Amino acid sequence: MKDYQINKQTEFKQYQYDMLYPSGIENHFWHKTRHKIIEHIIYKFKLDTTKLLDVGCGKGIVLNYLLAQQMNIFGVELAPVTPLAGLEKNIITGKAAQELLDKESYQTLLLLDVIEHLENPTEFINTLLTHFKNVDTIIITVPARQELWSSHDDFNQHFRRYDFEMLTDLAQKTKLHIPYQRYFFNLLYIPIKLLKKRQSDHKAPKGLSKVFHSLVSLYCYLEFCLTPKHLYGSSIISIFKKANNVTA
């Protein structure tokens, strides 16, 4: 097992949310692609009929997209951020997930680029499983490959970037199994490896640039669908399931 990259500060600040998620950021190719991939996995594993909770949902960028796909999804965010307009009834902020009153109503949890911010993700997932007794599936996305560590990870206060071995180890420690995992954003692997210092504030596409981002997003999604799962990319999506569930 490789040594983890450690970053001692974990509390996310409002200015970081504002820099990372400006208005219109959902049109950026990175977000458009990730939204489509998450939707793809939800349908692949027939989770669209379950009640989903997006843990660490931030302002609700992903949640807003999945709501538009008619999914039964809610979100919880520990930081006291302001949800996107119209999501006030679907997102609870300023609370930990285990403080929710309706925990038994959820069957699926989403941890989307969350656990890399945690020094002890094993304890975090075990706590969730203890409180959410009816949950049997967790969808996890993480930044991938320690060799891609850059100033962007420092800005985002990541503890580590993951690989398949690290996620498998995490699943074993939480007594879960992984029926599916793969890299995505293969296109970004080499550029990120070459650019150790990169801009952390994301610019929302405007005008004709939206067309460009849509085309790049289409390419990245097709890449996800067609390339081998072990081909390195800048992110990983993984399914954690309780051991008594059959692999999809």
Task: Give the helix/strand class.
Answer: alpha/beta
Q: Rough shape? A: globular
Average pLDDT level: 91
User: What's the CATH architecture?
Assistant: 3-Layer(aba) Sandwich
Which sequence of SSEs, written as H and E, runs from N to C? HHEHEEEHEHHEHHE
Question: What does this molecule look like?
Answer:
By secondary structure, the chain is of the alpha/beta class. It contains eight helices and seven strands; from the N terminus they run ααβαβββαβααβααβ. It has one domain: Rossmann fold (3-Layer(aba) Sandwich). The radius of gyration is 17 Å and the shape is globular. The N terminus is likely disordered.
In short:
It contains eight helices and seven strands, in the order ααβαβββαβααβααβ. The chain is an alpha/beta fold.
